[in-house]
Amino acid sequence: MPFRKLVGSYKDYTLSTHVIEAGYLAVDTTTGDLRIGDGSTPGGTLLASGNISQVGAVTFFGTKLTSPSNGDIEIEPGGTGNLLVQGLKFHDNEISSINSNDNLILSAAGTGQVVVGGFAFPTSDGSNGQALVTDGSGNLSFTTITGGGSDHAEASFTFVGDDSTGTTVDQGETFQIAGGTNITTAVSGDTLTITGANQTGAVSFSGTTLSSTDSSTININEGLIVDGTLTANSISGLTSTTIENTSTGDSLSITTTEDSSTAGPVIMLKRNSSSPADANYLGQLKFKGENDNDQEITYAKVTAKIQDASDGSEDGLLEFANIKAGSQTITARLKSNVFQLLNSTALEVGGYTFPTSDGSAGQVLQTDGSGTISFGTISGVGDLSIIGSSILSPSSADLTLNSSGGNVVVEGLRFAGTTISTEDSSAGVQVAGNLIPSADGVFQLGSASRRWQILYVSAETIDVGGATIKSDGTGAIEIAATGATLPEGSKVVNQTIALNGTTAKTQGRPVQNVPIFVSDGSTTFTDAQLLAGTAALTLEFNATVEDVPVYTEANQTFTLSDGTALANNAAGVTLFQF
Questions:
Q1: What is the pLDDT of residues 436-481, one digit of tens each?
Q2: DSSP 428
Q3: How far apart are CA 512 and CA 536, in angstroms?
Q4: Strands of 31-153, DSSP E
Q5: Does a structural domain hold residue 534?
Q6: φ, ψ at 15 (rounded to 5°)
Q7: pLDDT tens-digit profile of 549-564?
Q8: Do the Cβ atoms of 542 and 551 come closer than 8 Å?
Q9: Is residue 152 pLDDT above 50, yes or no?
Q10: Angle, vertex CA 344, rays to CA 340 and CA 348, nearest 5
Q11: Pair (515, 564) in one structural domain
Q12: Mean pLDDT across the stretch 183-205?
């Protein structure tokens, strides 16, 4: 192959202006740079730079360092020096990072894998808790460990003694129990049973299961850390427990498979106080979160409380508290007999917000038209409208209608205290039904100073204490202090009442009035027509049979047919007397 031979002679040139012949090498005696000429460029082309006054500083130009075919490239620092490459330090068989706390990262390009010692590592991370498992052919992958077995490592056990010191037993190691005759052990397959001589039961380890051989309680006197799922029929003796996760799913789930109608599952919060008293707080549910300053805040809580601790008359309540404008505030109490909204907490029902405090006497609830209800004074303006056909009061309670300085008017009837009057010009109040007092012989119709003017009874019967008064619609009865005036023809049972005469002589005698009808004969009348008319005169006839002519006592003269006057001392009974 052609080559040029370097001759050991030199000549000083000015490198910035001297053109080096093509193929000739030149060394800059000032900087130590090695240059090659092309026959046209002053100073030639730089091949390698270096300062002859600085030992160990070597700079390569270009992107490739190539060895002869199948030859090794050896870079070996002198003495105890290290090979430094882009933040990595190579020394003997160790590779480390140069900068303190830097990670050492191995990564493959594209779909390639990182292979270390013949083991190919996975190209992506696994799930939380998974482990690297080999397939026996040098390929590692992330896999979930589900228990002991021949294909993956056993979980280790940590045993803690009474002195709080712990011992970890890994796979392949032996755990031996010693210390006397009070403890016996038995191994069957992968099950270890530990039995105390003075105990009724034993603790059994089988795979991932810890159990009691006689179903009795397993006591854990130190802390218990569970990395996974804990399944137990019951847990007692816990003073506190914390459940932490990064999921939004159920953190605590309690399920019962019992089929009756009895409540279940049941969560009991019991405060076993030796001196319970009124107003003592009991169990509490707190709801915490963070604020925008990364501070833990109890935003709401529900607390049970003893309202009355008296035996036989106990009362309880639930108290609700919220953060209100940055401060813990009791907003509501559900007592055994009332639900209270406290500290300016409003009640909103169906979009209507009710007031948080009482109004003045006589004020009413009114809306502002935007859903806010408040107490206001009604100053006599407007009407009260009731939608529906009924106004109902609570069971067994009175329905009271009161006006403010006015009267209550219902369908034309005005109620003013105990006075009922009509609003219109009607003849009076009409009653469509029987008017019956609520008790017999107790209430009055009118009074001595306020009497009814006229009593109209259409049934023509008045019942007074069982005695009746009837009328056929004619006649009149007048009662005065001087006596009662009855209609003509009045009777006692079926007997006519005899009347006394009207003259001075006949007032002391019973008489019978006989009407006299007179006709001139030009018109013929029936008896009924005559009786319907007005009598020409009325004669008083003696109502008894007497032998003394009463007309003589009345100073009357009666002329007989022979023209003589009837003497008042006529002997014998006359046919008629008047």
A1: 888 988 888 888 898 888 888 876 788 888 888 888 778 788 888 8
A2: S
A3: 16
A4: 34-36, 45-49, 59-60, 83-85, 88-91, 94-97, 115-116, 119-120, 131-134, 140-143
A5: yes
A6: -65, -30
A7: 555 555 666 777 888 7
A8: no
A9: no
A10: 70
A11: yes
A12: 66
CA distance 282 to 276: 10
User: Is residue 37 assigned to a domain?
Assistant: yes
Question: Does pTM top 0.85 for this prediction?
Answer: no
pLDDT tens, 343-356?
A: 988 888 888 888 88
pLDDT of res. 382: 60
Decide if 304 is inside a domain. yes
Q: How many CB atoms lie within 10 A of CB 311?
A: 5
Structure tokens at 358: 């009482």
* Residue found by looking up tokens 């083991």 in the block: 119
Task: Provide the β-strand partners of residue 378.
Answer: none
Q: What is the CA radius of gyration of the chain?
A: 66
Domain match, 512 and 539 both? yes
Residues 6 or more apart from 24 whose CB is under 8 A from it?
Answer: 4, 36, 37, 44
**What is the chain's mean pLDDT, rounded?**
78
Distance CA 366, CA 504 (A): 85
- Cα atoms in the 13 Å half-sphere on the side-chain side of 89: 11
Whether residue 365 is found in the same domain as residue 334: no
Which of 141-150, 254-263, 317-326 comes out lowest in average pLDDT? 141-150
Residues 527, 497: one domain? yes
Q: How far is it, in rounded angstroms, from Cα 414 to Cα 406?
A: 10
Query: Is the model more confident about 453 or about 394?
Result: 453
The answer to whether 484 and 477 are in contact (CB under 8 A) is yes
Could you identify the residue written with the tokens 């939004």?
248
Q: Write down the pLDDT at residue 53.
A: 47
Written as one letter, the residue type at 295 is: Q
- DSSP one-letter code for 65: -
Q: Beta strands of 177-230 (E only): which ranges?
A: 183-188, 191-196, 202-206, 209-212
* Domain count of the fold of the chain: 5
Q: List the structure tokens of 109.
A: 């390009």
State which residues form the domain around 193.
182-212
Torsion angle, CA of 427/431/434/440, rounded to 10 degrees?
-80
Q: Which residues contact 175 (CB under 8 A, 6 or more apart)?
A: 157, 159, 169, 192
Between the alpha carbon of residue 260 and those of residues 233, 253, 256, 334, 521, the distances in Å are 20, 20, 11, 30, 115
Q: Give domain status of residue 529, yes or no.
A: yes
The single-letter DSSP state of residue 527 is H
